[in-house]
Amino acid sequence: MAELTERQKEIIEKAIKIIANDGIQNLTIKNLSKAIGVTEAALYRHYESKHSIMIAILDLFEEFSRTAKTGSGLKGIESFLMERYDKFIKNPELTKVMFSEAIFINDKELSKRMRLIIHGHRKELELLIDEAKSDNDISNSIETISLFRMIIGSMRLLVIQWCFNNYEFDLKKEGKILWNNINNLIKTR
Predict the structure, then answer these.
(1) What whole-number distance in Å separates Cα of residue 88 and Cα of residue 43?
(2) Cα–Cα distance, 56 to 76 (Å, whole number)
(3) 130 exposed, middle or buried (CB, 10 Å; 0-12, 13-18, 19+)?
(4) For the chain, how big is the Rg over CA atoms in Å?
(5) Degrees, nearest 5: CA angle 58-174-180
């Protein structure tokens, strides 16, 4: 991702805020320029279209969701999840936008970008799951892709509930409880 200017960062932040609080239908160049306090022409000097702003939002999400590998196997999976919960808590509006991926689905380029980001997460988590299987911490009788879906699917539901509840419960605490329960279900005895 190219280094953004301060104005470009401001535009992206305001765009995320508009989508998160008012919906994608209200992200227009007119509304965005008004929120920033510049003319539409001034905004176009930084981004050529709403589409290019959406690409920049996906770039930001991709950068945001990168994690440093801090462990392997079951500990690595837990670290993967807990680090993401921390990031979600620090960036609730971006989280809300990214967990509304349906807004990207009807645009071929945006959909492809979102799919690549999701597949990157999948590969990262599947490696950790396979390490846990190699360590005999998780049974090999459970397919890796199914484990990925159980772990990420339950995390997604929790985050969506958090967003719908205006971020009012302790996401990290609930995420830890959720992970402990999943861990108890999947680990070998």
Answers:
(1) 28
(2) 29
(3) middle
(4) 19
(5) 105
| 38, 14 Cβ separation under 8 angstroms | no
**Alpha-carbon gap, residue 49 to 81, rounded angstroms:** 34
187 forms beta bridges with 138
52: left (phi over 0), alpha (psi -120 to 50) or beta: alpha
> What is the reported pTM?
0.86
As given in the structure block, the two tokens for residue 157 are 């539901």
pLDDT tens digits for 100-148?
A: 878 888 889 988 988 888 898 899 999 999 999 999 999 889 999 999 9
CA distances from 146 to 80, 117, 126, 143 (A): 17, 19, 10, 5
CATH superfamily of 6-58: Homeodomain-like (1.10.10.60)
**Domain at 65-186, CATH class:** mainly alpha
Reading the block at residue 38, the tokens are 């510049």
> Domain spans of the chain?
6-58, 65-186
Provide the H-helix boundaries in 65-168: 73-90, 92-98, 108-134, 144-164
Evaluate whether 145 touches 126 at the Cβ level (below 8 Å): yes
